[in-house]
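Lab notebook, bench 4. Still working through the backlog of constructs that have no structural model yet. Next entry is a single chain of 91 residues. Request: give me the structure tokens for it.
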Amino acid sequence: MLQRPKFGRYISDISRQRILDIVGAAALMLDPTERVSDCRDVKDNKYLELGLAAAASIIVSSDEDLLVLDPWRGIRILRPADYVRLRENRE
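Model written out:
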């Protein structure tokens, strides 16, 4: 996502690469095995598949096509601000 040209207006190439390096070092690489077709936007099913493969409890997204599914197979789908509020309330 950060490699998209539109982000160049907001953050330098060097900063974007630093962020990607940090995230990449901490990332868990998964290859989803279960295919789903529950989202009305078929391009977004990959996020649901990844959530299943990761045994995620929450998917954070601003995409309305995903948000309308909340909760989906026991996985919450929350807007970023709602996720932050949830985390703040747990601390």
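Notes after review: The chain has a mean pLDDT of 92. The chain is about 40% helix and 5% strand. Flag for follow-up if needed.
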